[in-house]
Amino acid sequence: MKTALLTIATALLLLAAPAMAQFSMVPAPLAEGAPVVSEAETTQDYKKDFARHIYKSYPMRIYRGKLPPLLYSVMMTETQIDAQGVVIDVSIRRPPAAKEVAPWVVQLIKRAGPFPAPAKMGLSTISEIWLVDKSGNFQLDTLTEGQR
Hints:
The chain is α+β, with helices and mostly antiparallel strands. It has three helices and four strands, in the order ααββαββ.
C-alpha cells in the first residue's frame, strides 16, 4: 500500500514538473538600450507602451493567437515606474493559482526595464493582468488576442 502511494505521488510530481520547469528560469530580455520616451498623457495610454515594451523584450514568450480556454495562471501586477522609466517596485495585486508563476513574472518585469519614460506623467503605477499558458508563454490583458 505504501509503495503504491509513493508511486502515485511520484507520478503526480512528474506530471507537474514540466509546467513548473517553464518558470524556473527568466529569459534575458531582447530589448536593449534606452527606450523611447512615451508620449502618453494618461495611465491608460501608458499601459499600452508598458505592454509593448514587455512584448518587445520577450518576443519568444508571447503566446501567438487566441489563448486556450483553460489558462495555467492568471495574475495581476502593479508596477511603479519613475519619470525615467526605471522600475521602482513590482507588487502582486492578485496572486496566481500556480505559485511558481509570481516570482517569474516579477523578474520578467524587473529585467525588462528601463521602460519608456513616462515624461508627461512623471511617476506612474501600472496595473496589468498576466494571462499565462502552461508552456510559459503569455499575453498581457492590454494587448491580448482573446481566448478560444
